[in-house]
Structures are given as structure tokens and as C-alpha cells.
Amino acid sequence: MSKPITVTDETFEAEVIQAALPVLTDFWANWCAPCHMIAPTLEEIAAEYADQLKIARLDVDSNPRMAMQFGVMSIPTLILFKNGQVVERLVGAMPKGNLLARITPHL
Fold this sequence. Notes:
Elements: E1 5-6, H1 12-17, E2 23-28, H2 33-48, E3 54-59, H3 64-69, E4 77-82, E5 85-91, H4 96-103
Parallel strand pairs: 1-3, 2-3
Antiparallel strand pairs: 2-4, 4-5
């Protein structure tokens, strides 16, 4: 069973950009209530799609460089990277079905 991994500005390139699988990156912060609301859904997706998708979490307060680089203006922002490229961007908490509808076409 796979779980979301924590990434930082320093590990982002290796863990997200160079990853073999598509990576759904959750740009979040500890003070953000919607970020906490979506976290259990991301854990479920990480477990259910472990062989097709990697989930990464980046705390924007501790790692502002990547958030700025990818134009994250509000959180949670979920960015799906495939082959190092942004293929989908979702802003705000949403139900699992809506989230899967947006990301599964890219898997």
C-alpha cells in the first residue's frame, strides 16, 4: 500500500519532475482547513492507484520556491505532472469522484 510522500524545494526535481509515474502534487499548508479535508482522499487514491500514480505533498510555507515556480496562488492546489510536464491543475478541495475524473485520463 502506497502513501503520499513529502517533497521539498530540494527534492522536487528528483521526486516529481524525474518520476517514472505521473505525480499528483498537493501544494498545501498546515493552517489550511480545505487542505486537511482533502488529505484523506489523497491517501485513499495513493493506496488505490499505487501502481499508476504517485502522490506528493509540498508544504508551501516551508517550500515557497516550487509554489512560486508553478504559480500556486491559493491552496490546496493539486498539479498533476506526467513526464515532468504539467498536464492538469486543480484548485480547491473536491470530492474524490471529481478529482479522479480529472486525473485518471492522464494515467
